[in-house]
Amino acid sequence: MGYVLRNDDRLVWHYEKKGCYTVRSGYWLACAIRDREDGEVGASNSNFENIWLRLWRMQVANKVKVFLWRCMHEILPCRQNLFFKRVVSNPICFQCHEAPETVLHALWDCPAAHEELRHFGYICWNVWNGRNTQLFQGWKPNAFQSYQHMQEMAEEFYQANCTSLRSIQDGSNLVVN
Ligand SMILES: [Zn+2]
Questions:
Q1: Considering the chain, what percentage of its residues have pLDDT values greater than 70?
Q2: In a domain, 136, yes or no
């Protein structure tokens, strides 16, 4: 026999008191399942705290730390949260109109975020490249050198791939294949 949903029924997330999914509880559950499989029951909460402690010790502006803390606790004023608080009548992302605007959607899933996420790719590549430089050449690029290299890579990619697009946007006739 199937379930019959009435109008006032709603799906709830079992792992939060309010029944709403959060990245924090989702991460907690993922760690709990993993730890259970690894025989390390009870370690998941400390994993979450460890991640947060490492973020808090980062040498970045306090407003960035607070922002990250709010992200991890899913308390940014994204449309989904505003919807639950009855501030807005629609939780759907105002940029892509494809899904509810959760923190995860706004910062990762939304197509509108993909351009910024390219930088994340460059950062990861630079971290890995820095490790290899240290391993194979005996010196490690400092943060400024890594940042400069990242900018050069991004600019090089842009020049090679986006010139024709820019010429169209500028209204010029330059077309580079
Ligand atoms: Zn979106």
A1: 72
A2: yes
Ligand 1 center to 114 CA (angstroms): 10
* 84 and 150 part of one domain: no
User: What is the Cα–Cα distance from 77 to 4, expressed in whole angstroms?
Assistant: 33
Predicted confidence (pLDDT) at residue 170 exceeds the cutoff of 90: no
Instruction: Specify whether 95 is located in the same domain as 157.
Output: no
Whether 89 is in a domain gets the answer yes
Does residue 145 sit in the same domain as residue 131? yes
In angstroms, what CA-CA distances link 141 with 39, 81, 130, 154? 39, 41, 6, 18
**Which residues touch 92 (CB under 8 Å, ≥6 apart)?**
79, 98, 99, 100, 101
Q: 101 and 165 share a domain?
A: no
Q: How far is the CA of 98 from the centre of ligand 1 (A)?
A: 6
How far apart are the CA of 46 and the centre of ligand 1, in A?
Answer: 32
What are 38's two structure tokens?
A: 């690894």
The model scores a pTM over 0.85? no
Give residue 173 CA to ligand 1 midpoint distance, Å.
33
Q: For residue 103, how far is its CA from the centre of ligand 1 (angstroms)?
A: 10
The last residue of one of the domains, among 112, 140, 156, is: 112
